[in-house]
């Protein structure tokens, strides 16, 4: 394809056509039900007393997920919202009053209508796209076709799907809108010297911080501008950043004084303020994964989502990310050495990922990075295909091939990622909600103890919230023994006691998000007491992971007051408990299901 033909093709994109494609790709998202933390928000907004919150400065407690109050944490464990192995010091609560207000407004105006809440989030994303396009015009001053190309790459970036679809993640969109508005005002201030723009920039940052702490990432762009493009030089450009630092410090001090903060396992969320060394270690692990995902359109969470069963795959992905990193940085340095404005966008985007390295790699945390990286990619494709003279000394064929690969990735594969991700989120949230409401063999749960042998952690944490909001009965207590990895063996010792062992051990893989054994080990003989039952650690494997558990119940296991379930093809099904002395073992989640159509073929009993 000639440079002229490529320019004509890009020119035909047009903003209305791009928005139409975007709308079609996100149609499943608009029709999707609530997801995960959304149910937690709705319970609190509806004044339901199932989960109590308080003691901090939030409006409704929507982002006070797990607080430091032991009683509240024990309540969440007893209800199955948190797993039994959650460490005593585990808590995280965030101060996002503007995001809280937006969810309150949704609930007051639309009630339990997820479609309107999804549309609300999409409007924030489109507003962000408009702000970014204004910034690109302001800095790069590109021809219309290049601007359309950059806007298309950003709008159709598949990494944005979780940010847009997950209503509870609207805080990131709101924070980004005001943070990049801050960047725009800052640039106008430094170019014109007008202090009114300085006031607007500082005010925008303060508003962005009140929407979500991810707004801190805009500091990378402000720093990159000061080092590369500030009209009054690097030294003076850096000094004026101290005003923004005052706002951030004031926010952090108020954040702490109001009772917000986080203390979790280092595999889940690592605070750079309380665990600086741990943060540096995890940042070195996660930075390559985040950066590589931005260039090759792969989901950032793929490096850990497979769990313990796919640890080899996770290691391979992390290794490939490290191998890609020098290639990406080298390409960026060579391509931008003649254009400091493009260098500003690229390095601002890459550095903006450092603050979010505190959390497990996830697409929803890459929003600030994708802005800078997508601007750079649009510029690079354009230069390689149309303005090749600016990219010497590279050969013509090398430039054409580079442009073709990047164009296919970000104009074909990435929109497919966006569309499939939207469809997946719709299907997954529909499936989780329907299974939680009408799981196989449902009985009246009120007054009962629910024991789930194995279930994905994300599904178990929302089970009771979904049922509560839809007026379904919930148990008095709920226990999840393990996630869906590994094989589980259950022995019935007496009508009040079970012994459970697991081939790979407990508190491993995804489960370590709530307790890292290296930091908070469990000891043989240690007990976790919960309403209706007690868990005792009977043995550990050579790595210190619990291998065998003893469960003592206050109620006779055969009285009908204790119900056993496990997951099968994503559906919770009742499990038939064998007689005393008998046992059952999971084998890829194949259990003796308690229904008339299947006999308990793998349950055995003495005599």
Automatic annotation (TrEMBL):
TM ranges: 115-135, 172-188, 200-223, 235-254, 313-335, 342-361, 367-386, 398-427
For this UniProt record, the keywords arranged alphabetically read as follows: Membrane, Transmembrane, Transmembrane helix
Spans annotated as Disordered: 588-607
Q: What protein name applies here?
A: Glycosyltransferase RgtA/B/C/D-like domain-containing protein
